[in-house]
Amino acid sequence: MHETELNERLNKLALKAVNKKSKFGEDVDLGRYKEEGENLKKAEVSKADRKKLSDVGVQEKSRSGSYLQFDSSVLEERQLQRGIEIMSISRALKKYGWLKDYWWKAVAVDQDKFTAYSQLHRPMGYFIRALPHAKSEFPVQACLYIKKKGTVQSVHNLIIAEEGSKLDVITGCAVGEGTKDALHIGISEFFVKKNATISFTMIHSWGENVIVRPRSAAIVEENGTFLSNYINMRKSGSTQMYPTSYCVGKNSTVRYNTILVAPEGSNIDVGSRTVLKAEGSKTEMISRVISTGGNAYVRGDIDGQAKNVRGHLECRGLILGDKGFVYSVPELRAGLKDLDLSHEAAIGKIAEEEIFYLMTKGLSEEEATAVIVRGFLNVDIRGLPPLLDKEIKRTIETSLSSML
Fold first, then answer.
1. Three-state secondary structure call for residue 149
2. Which of 55, 89, 346, 359 lies at a 20 to 30 A Cα distance from 305?
């Protein structure tokens, strides 16, 4: 299909969905926010901004490439390793005509009002690709940052791992000091080709009254692996996301790891879904959720549609204090007999005997609580390169130090 015809068809679908509410989460009045034009320069990044960027994993060294966007301004796009491409999505669409074959192929353009908004406004965001058999030596980093109050930041990202490649991505999202009212819409489409791997780590550090609506999906081909890690340790006004992966190739693998803290005032509705469409495909979903006064819905869905598929869903919640709640919603679907799907969920508080035991070893009550919380959030994420695993642990530890 010609590019103009494709865009017209997508626009028609989007126009029909401009008022379509999301299935989950609170409704949002998109008219409250405005999209800022490209008017920032890298020199305008303040020391306070840099501190916030560092908190979500952004750094200058040990990277295979970097992308930095403030509001709607692209401040940096650097490719630092041969075989690994990173650039703004607008530049990528001009450079590669074939990208139209990936545009809205994993995520439905008419899914809801947020996907519709993304299509009907100019595309921003990033394009990351590992060429065939290339292996990222260090993580590729991308950062989406909101600096202006009342802004809507709408991005559409494409991430592709070509056959036999390995791509590690760490993306940090945050807001500037005092930016308490903003909207982030993030469309991310992942394509994992035969024998390829993508590990994608997303660290959120949004602010009070910031509305966050990511919409993402992955298509995983034969012997491909998609590893998705989501970390949110800070307060946000409202976050709702439900990424979906489709295992379309034989023996493909998907793993989701979620580490979430809901402070008082937060309303968070997150989850993950995997559709096992090919023989021998498998998935694992692990969630660790703490409410320190906020509300957290944690969803999980495994849909087994082929022979010899396997899936496991695990959610553990911890309540600290007398406010807020954790609501776990596990779902399993099976249409055949030759498969193995399971789930387990547990929500509770810290046992008094555990705190007492640690206090007998010389710890104060606060120190004992901190030790237990750290152990609760210590998730063994398989398949991560050592550098990325170290950065995730550092991010969690930094956030815990300020929380406890």
1. coil
2. 346
C-alpha distances in angstroms, 181 versus 26, 146, 209, 210, 281?
16, 10, 5, 5, 42
User: 345-388: per-residue pLDDT in tens?
Assistant: 888 887 778 877 788 878 887 777 777 777 777 766 666 667 66
DSSP 337-353: SSEEEEEEEEEE---HH
Element (H, E) at 31: none
Provide, for the chain, the percentages of residues in helix, strand and coil under a 3-state DSSP scheme, each rounded to the nearest 5: 20, 45, 35
- Residue 280, domain member (yes or no): no
CA 38, chain centre distance (Å): 25
* pLDDT confidence of residue 388: 65
DSSP state of 131: P
pLDDT along the chain (404 residues), means of 10: 83 96 94 78 78 79 90 92 96 95 97 96 92 95 91 96 97 84 95 97 86 97 96 86 98 94 90 97 94 92 96 91 89 90 88 79 78 74 66 67 58
Number of domains in the chain: 1
Q: Which two tokens stand for residue 62?
A: 């040990």
Helices (H) and strands (E) in the chain, counts: 7, 20
Task: State the Cα–Cα distance between residues 356 and 117, nearest whole angstrom.
Answer: 53
Q: Containing domain of residue 49, as a range?
A: 1-219
Residue 360 within any structural domain of the chain: no
Q: How far is CA 234 from CA 59, 209, 210, in A?
A: 20, 12, 11
In whole angstroms, give the CA distance from residue 131 to residue 128.
Answer: 10
Predicted TM-score (pTM) of the model is 0.91
| Residue 318 placed within a domain | no
- What is the per-residue burial (b if ≥16 Cβ within 10 Å, else e) of 204-217? bbbbebbbbbbbbb
Query: Are the CB atoms for 330 and 345 separated by under 8 Å?
Result: yes
Q: Does residue 321 sit within a domain? A: no
Residue 208: closest CA among 258, 149, 162, 156: 149
